[in-house]
Design goal:
- This protein has a five-stranded parallel beta sheet with strand order 2-1-5-6-7, with helices on both faces. The protein has a three-stranded mixed beta sheet with strand order 8-9-10, covered by helices on one side.
- Helix 3 crosses helix 11 and helix 8 runs parallel beside helix 9.
- The protein has a domain of 240 residues: Rossmann fold, CATH 3.40.50.1110.
- The chain has twelve helices and ten strands.
- It starts with a helix and ends with a helix.
- The protein is globular.
- GO terms for molecular function: hydrolase activity, acting on ester bonds.
- Pfam families: Lipase_GDSL_2 (PF13472).
Length: 384
């Protein structure tokens, strides 16, 4: 015959276990559950003096190139030119470290299971492990789902970190740049090229807008004086690997219309909140390198910088290419984009970040082009 006391203890332990697991999953499933916005955010009158806190949510378009944990391959992010090939976040940190604080450089994050456990017990967490700035949560390969969902929960985990120093984030900036891994794949673009209202691309776009909207709401609820930048989607029809595809005006118009759905959704988010800025990435790209012609053929311009450097919309690790061999933005692209970003931040939010001058751009890029000439000379000598 079973011992009644022992049975009750077993049942009680089981019940406690169920309640604990249920509570943990509820905590993980609902952003901000059991955690109210910090009171000090609402009561403070001004942010402390010092550099502006700057955080990033996104994918490989915003993960630092000099990460050696995730991006250790020798052919990645510039290959032989990697030492002088910089991501825009790295350019920003190097040119304006006295005014912008992206967090300390270091190894951040753990494996996904450890991050899950840490978060469940109320500790700060992030995944995967990478070498980057502390406030840069962007991860190569991330999709829009990773802003709020497992495994990365980028927005949720960033806000948890921000909540530990709420006053420091008054007047800070969170930039969200994501979506290309959802929408930019060849198969999705091909569906759009044939039908701008195609069901799958439309669902992917709407899913991204929903995730980004929830991330913005979470940030703005917890940190009502923190600014948010929403970067629009680029078109992979402008990538040299796709130049042989969609060579008709109708196909390109359909792709643009589909991508407009994404950008217009971001514009609508920004239109209702003075602390939210939409940054039109395709318009910026067109202002420099242009676009396909009316027949959908690649007819791009060349960007010419004063030392006589010509940067074309081609792929290669040499800094004369806009895009790297591994399909990410090259150092010229990222440096000019940083110049553009600072101007937009100042204009939209009344920040007083020192603009990046054209002379600074040239000085920053000089080592990249100098290394290019060293490699070219070495190749010439070796061939003799």
């Amino acid at each position: 015959m079973a011992n009644p006391r022992r049975s009750r203890r077993i049942l009680l332990a089981a019940l406690c276990g169920v309640l604990a697991v249920t509570g943990l999953f509820a905590r993980l499933g609902v952003p901000g559950l059991l955690r109210k916005p910090p009171v000090s955010v609402a009561t403070a009158t001004q942010r402390p003096a010092g550099p502006i806190r700057f955080a990033v949510l996104g994918d490989s378009d915003s993960q630092s190139y000099h990460d050696t944990l995730m991006l250790g391959g020798p052919d990645l992010r510039g290959g032989p030119w990697r030492a002088t090939t910089w991501q825009w976040t790295e350019v920003l940190a190097r040119l304006r470290s006295e005014q912008i604080d992206p967090g300390a450089w270091g190894a951040w994050g753990t494996g996904k299971y450890r991050a899950f456990i840490d978060e469940a017990r109320g500790a700060l967490s992030r995944t995967p492990p990478k070498e980057d700035y502390r406030y840069d949560f962007a991860v190569s390969g991330a999709t829009c789902h990773q802003l709020m969902g497992l495994t990365q929960r980028q927005a949720i985990r960033l806000v948890a970190l921000m909540d530990t120093e709420p006053l420091a984030w008054r007047g800070g900036v969170v930039l969200i740049r994501i979506g290309i891994n959802d929408i930019g794949g060849h198969d999705v673009m091909d569906e759009l090229a044939r039908d701008r209202h195609a069901a799958r691309p439309t669902a992917l776009i709407d899913g991204c807008l929903d995730a980004i909207g929830k991330a913005v709401t979470l940030i703005r609820t917890h940190h009502p004086d923190t600014h948010v930048v929403l970067v629009g989607i680029l078109s992979n029809a402008d990538w040299s690997a796709e130049f042989d595809n969609w060579q008709s005006g109708a196909a390109i118009a359909n792709i643009d219309a589909g991508l407009d759905r994404f950008d217009n959704g971001l514009r609508n988010l920004a239109a209702t909140d003075r602390h939210v800025l939409f940054l039109d990435d395709r318009a910026w790209f067109r202002s420099l390198w242009g676009e396909r012609d009316a027949q959908g053929l690649p007819r791009y311009k060349t960007v010419r910088l004063s030392p006589g450097w010509a940067i074309t919309n081609t792929s290669g690790n040499d800094p004369h290419n806009a895009v790297l061999t591994d399909s990410h933005a090259g150092v010229v692209w990222n440096t000019l984009w940083t110049q553009h970003l600072i101007s937009a931040l100042n204009s939209a939010f009344g920040l007083s970040i020192k603009p990046v001058s054209d002379d600074e751009v040239i000085a920053f890029l000089q080592p990249a082009f100098a290394s290019r000439h060293r490699y070219a000379n070495a190749d010439t000598a070796a061939s003799k």
